[in-house]
UniProtKB/TrEMBL annotation, chains A, B:
Belongs to the beta-class carbonic anhydrase family. Its cofactor is Zn(2+). Keywords: Lyase, Metal-binding, Zinc. This is Carbonic anhydrase. The lineage of its organism: Eukaryota, Fungi, Dikarya, Basidiomycota, Agaricomycotina. Binds 1 zinc ion per subunit. Reversible hydration of carbon dioxide. It comes from Tulasnella calospora MUT 4182. InterPro entries: Carbonic_anhydrase (IPR001765), Carbonic_anhydrase_sf (IPR036874).
Length: 174, 174
């Protein structure tokens, strides 16, 4: 069975107990957007006490702010969020590689007949790895605070945190 | 109190009951990457029966595949996932606007002294809205299946689903 089919099966129980969640509003009730990593060990709802309807949750490899900008603009302009909480985490995959290494690996993995064709595109891809966890958080918070495209009134409510995958604990660093 | 401070408070309980999660491995146990929207009403773990450690979860405004590509490449190349399950959902904010309208709104919201300076960048931003839910899912699945940068062996295990925010139910459409 595919994992997708397992999801559909597990979903049946969620639907049965859905209840009052059917009437939740589109705008996040707590007016906050969370940016965090796609890492499988992270459950934002469980670890931060979120209920359905509370917060936008933006996740990508590393929890990088640049890639989240489109989503954050939509979140602020159309859906009323006024705070941003960004997390990167210990033991992140982004600490384990650099762009050149992953580009080479990617080119080796594609079908031989398209390798030359994709090489220029692959050589321009940036995978946004980082070598220092705390520094990456400070850089991403600084990037958001400096962006002219985010609402000025929210700039004092942008914070950066480490999520520790070995304890589940969050600690503010920016 | 900021929402971030409320998160830190709620996190204390999670840390106390963290237990065996401290020894979870970095690669997702179920070898799957989920792509879904940042929408506040969606809790992937609760609605799909996910435990910490199971799956990469990539979330952005709309659950758009193009923006998820960097993360999916990292997921496949470095962390061993071999299936992709993509969800868009009913009542999505992406169904409510178009690029021109949001660009105008964004320009009006920035400080007057930087409005001219940011206009060229804003006019080039695409916010990836869509006007037909089912079509957007089919297009995103087709985009992933056509990408030469994703592993060929995974192409038969890319599926697209509607998540219904009024019932919690997931339904496959691609």
């Amino acid at each position: 069975m595919s994992v997708a089919a397992e999801f559909a099966k597990a979903n049946e129980g969620y639907v049965k107990s859905f209840g009052e969640k059917a009437s939740l509003a589109l705008p996040p009730a707590r007016k906050v957007a969370i940016i965090t990593c796609m890492d499988a060990r992270i459950d934002p709802a469980a670890s931060l006490g979120l209920k359905e309807g509370d917060a936008h949750v933006i996740r990508n490899a590393g929890g990088r702010a640049q890639e989240a900008l489109r989503s954050v603009i939509i979140s602020q302009q159309l859906l009323g969020t006024r705070e941003i909480v960004l997390f990167h985490h210990t033991d992140c995959g982004m600490l384990t590689f650099n762009d050149d290494g992953l580009r080479t690996k990617l080119k080796e993995s594609v079908k031989a007949d398209v390798r030359n064709a994709v090489t220029p595109a692959v050589d321009q891809l940036s995978f946004l790895p980082f070598s220092n966890l705390e520094q990456s958080i400070k850089e991403d918070v600084a990037y958001l605070k400096a962006s002219p495209l985010l609402l000025e009134e929210t700039k004092t409510k942008i914070t950066g945190w480490v999520y520790d995958v070995y304890s589940g604990k969050v600690t503010q660093v920016a």
